[in-house]
TrEMBL record:
<protein>
    <recommendedName>
        <fullName>Transposase IS4 N-terminal domain-containing protein</fullName>
    </recommendedName>
</protein>
Amino acid sequence: MDGHNKEANPTAERTVQIDPTVECIIQMFPEEFLWNLARKTGFIKRIRKIDPVTFFWVLILGFGVDFLRSIRALERRYETEANIKLRDGALYDRFKPELVEFLRECVLHAIEFQAQQQSRALGEKLNGFKDIIIQDSTIIRLHESLADLWPATRSKRVAAGVKVSCVVSAVADGVKSVKLFPERTSEIKTLRIGPWVKDRILLVDPRVL
């Protein structure tokens, strides 16, 4: 009988789950932040029918390959979410440089937010450290027309090259910094040791030491 009931009511114990990506975006863009940014960038100059928070979410989560494909469709979705009726072209008038600046600042905020998140944790044996930092550099060959600006080393002909130094965080699982140096720069000069290495394991090329 119990088995029959479970089959007859497949959603009885089902819980609503939010897409992890959407949940992360919600945490990234709290309502107060969006309001303040809308005012700062001039996207919203005074409170009218257009709510910057609702507009942001409709725009971000609505547009896509199989979603909204026109400004009018965006307006209809906004009317549904905000439970209001807009005049024709109300949202179209919002697509101005101020909106571009608003979205640009949102992108920069998202990048900074992600950079501060820890996507990995060190194992128990390393829990006394905050992070593992890996530094390495490589040579990238450039077009010979750049030889005067970025001369190559140990080359029998005119050549150009640049040394790219990269610092990666194991905890953040991403790049912390990328710097360019002349190819002739010695390895030891590509990394500056400072307070930032405190409580962190630093893995470097032996030539740096």
